[in-house]
Amino acid sequence: MWNFERGLAKVVGMMLHRELKAGVRAVYLEGKFPPPPFVLAMNHHSYFDGHLVYLLFRSFGFRGKLLISPENVAAFPIFRPLGALEASRVRAALQALGAGEVVAVFPEGDLRCHGKLGELKRGAVFLAQKARVPLVPCAARLFPRGFPRPEIYIWIGDPVDPDLGALRVALERMLSAMDELVEKTHPREPIPGFHPLFTGHRGLDEQMAGISRALGRFLR
Q: Global pTM?
């Protein structure tokens, strides 16, 4: 059974990687993680947020769990081997933290439209308090910009006190700052301070840039 779950995790992980690569131009990152264990609290404003948690875990070599609704786990049990865990299974989440893993939480609970932060639930704060681990705010934005595919920017904040107000302030500050930065940045330039984490689909103009330059010598 363990070998089957390991194989399934590899296949599902490849599917998530392929969908993310096809759906976005790139993912950019700012900030650093503390050493595990910790609770990662991310806003939930994009279809790709679950993909992003998987990408972060994979990129940094973290073992971890992503808390999602029991309905989603029941509908997509194939995500269990990748770390999907019912949000109601608090004891299992605490055990994961106790074993040195990372537990990711969407404090807003439900997927929301791009915009202001929704009402936060106490789950992430409770887990950090109970396990006595850092609470790390994580802001993610998907921006349609100057390319055929959108870009995603992730900002890892400094750990905050396990307090709902402190978490909200940190997330709102980072989301607002990213919104301001993207307005001031040319739509075909990355936001200052962020570095590439993942390369996705390049548009025809980028794919053909080298060929176009070479052919341009003969078409003048």
A: 0.92
CA 29 to CA 154: how far, in whole Å?
A: 5
* 3-state class (DSSP) for residue 134: coil
| Residue range 90-113, pLDDT digits in tens | 999 999 999 999 999 999 998 888
DSSP, residue by residue, 161-203: -S-HHHHHHHHHHHHHHHHHHHHHS-TTSPPTT-EEEEE-PPP
> Measuring CA to CA, how many Å separate 87 from each of 12, 64, 135, 205?
21, 14, 17, 43
Give, as one character, the DSSP assignment of residue 158: P
pLDDT per position as a tens digit, 126-163:
999 999 999 999 999 999 999 999 999 999 999 999 99
Residues 6+ apart with CB under 8 A from 103: 37, 39, 40, 64, 65, 66, 67, 93, 96, 97, 127
57: closest CA among 192, 204, 197, 184? 197
